[in-house]
Specification:
By secondary structure, the protein is α+β, with helices and mostly antiparallel strands. Strands 7, 8, 9, 10 and 11 form a 5-stranded antiparallel beta sheet that branches. The protein has a two-stranded antiparallel ribbon with strand order 1-2. The protein has a two-stranded antiparallel ribbon with strand order 3-4. Pfam families: FYVE, Ysc84. GO terms for molecular function: phosphatidylinositol binding; zinc ion binding.
């Protein structure tokens, strides 16, 4: 699509203004194989009912015939190993350019004044009357009108003047207006394209001393994972015999990094969050995808500890397993922690709707804990965190881990920590 120089200059000026308005004014809290990414199937929310139903589907393998997203992206290399075809790392189409003048009215709109709840007794789109339990009121963030839940299912990034980087609830009519400019807004104002502000991980920053088990946003997960990798580098240099073997790390196709809290006696409970990144054939890293873990352990054990996990994805099968919306792991391990220093060694088998694999886990732990146990975990993709970070509600885990998403500027601390990790291996 072509447009005039005046429009191009105006577009360029708008981009500069967009970044300038946010700067300092807002801070987020939070051989050949082809693949056709699906942007139409929205993943289900992670609820207890969904966990049970997905577990049943995996065990009975019913999902193999009904999952339209189960597209094979694997091939066989010259040495017989399973590999990802390099073509899947390339976007299927070039970025869409927009004619700024055609969407100027939408891009420069000012935030509306929301209508009062009492101004409407029925949905302003479908005219269905509001009720206390079955049909509540919801405001469209773009026009300020009052609608029911069924007429406000869409989530969109809003123009710069709204000062919102997370996708917001909008009515169906406003979704149609905003949809053509989403690519432009994603590349200019989403959380992923912002420069990381929390990048101090030494003794001068309290968060650098101790990772919290729960991260409320992708920015938190990036900070925690960067801190974990840098701490691991220090441990590996001082105690090489207690680190992950260099040969395993060099051949790794990806890493999953989590911070998990574990406590109990005989029966232990685990909860934590983190992220996963895959390693491409050229040695570069994909964009990160947020995950959370919930688990139980049984055995001769007692105490409580905080663990920083580094899970080594040994091959492409492991990457494919983490592309699942949810997968299960079963393994055995021993743990010992006394004060700020502890070690946990585990090997586990993981299975999800995209495949199964075996992974090795290294971790540093803090607390007072000792024991050996049989561990079972559920690991799921945090679609809400990915949506808020990348600004695209239709983005899938496969899109992120297969390199179809550009490396986000906000994840530079993570890529710096990964570069330090692998540069230390070559020394």
């Amino acid at each position: 699509m072509q447009f005039s120089n005046d429009d191009a200059n105006q577009n360029h000026s708008y981009c500069e203004n967009a970044l300038g308005i946010f700067d300092g004014c807002y801070e987020s809290s939070d051989d050949s194989v082809s693949i056709i990414p699906s942007f139409t199937n929205k993943p289900s929310e992670v609820r207890f009912k969904n966990v049970i139903s997905r577990a049943f589907s995996i065990l009975t393998r019913r999902n193999k015939t009904s999952d339209t997203n189960d597209v094979s992206f694997l091939g066989v290399g010259k040495d017989g190993d399973i590999v990802i075809d390099p073509s899947v790392y390339m976007p299927s189409a070039p970025p869409i350019e927009i004619d700024y003048s055609a969407y100027k009215e939408v891009l420069e709109v000012e935030p509306p004044e929301w209508l009062r709840d009492s101004s409407a007794t029925a949905c302003m789109q479908c005219s269905a009357p509001f009720t206390a339990l079955t049909r509540g009121r919801h405001h469209c963030r773009f026009c300020g009108g009052v609608f029911c839940r069924g007429c406000t299912k869409g989530r969109c990034l809003l123009p710069v003047a709204f000062r919102e980087r997370n996708p917001q609830r909008v009515c169906d009519a406003c979704h149609g207006k905003l949809d053509p400019v989403q690519d432009f807004l994603i590349s200019n104002i989403s959380n992923a394209v912002q420069v990381a502000k929390h990048d101090v991980m030494d003794w001068t920053c309290a968060k650098g001393w101790l990772n919290l088990p729960i991260g409320f946003s992708m920015e938190d997960e990036i900070y925690k994972s960067s801190n974990t990798l840098r701490n691991y580098c220090k441990v590996a240099r001082s105690n090489p015999e207690k680190s992950i073997p260099l040969a395993i790390l060099k051949e790794a196709k990806g890493l999953a990094i989590l911070t998990v809290v574990k406590a109990g006696a005989f029966l232990s409970y685990k909860l934590g969050t983190g992220l996963v990144v895959s390693r491409k054939s050229d040695g570069s890293w994909s964009a990160p995808s947020a995950i959370f873990s919930l688990g139980l352990g049984w055995g001769a054990q007692i105490g409580g500890e905080l663990m920083d996990f580094i899970i080594v994805l040994r091959d492409i099968k492991a990457v494919r397993t983490f592309c699942s919306h949810m997968h299960f792991s079963l393994g055995a391990g021993c743990s010992a922690a006394a004060g700020p220093i502890g070690r946990v060694l585990e090997a586990d088998i993981r299975a999800g709707d995209r495949g199964s694999c075996m992974c090795y886990t290294y971790s540093c732990s803090k607390g007072a804990f000792v024991g050996a146990s049989l561990e079972g975990n559920i690991v799921a993709t945090r679609m809400d965190a990915n949506m808020q970070f990348y600004g695209n509600p239709c983005l899938t885990t496969s899109d992120i881990l297969l390199g179809m998403v550009d490396r986000p500027e906000a994840a530079e601390p993570l890529y710096g920590a990964l570069k330090d990790l692998y540069s230390s291996l070559s020394c």
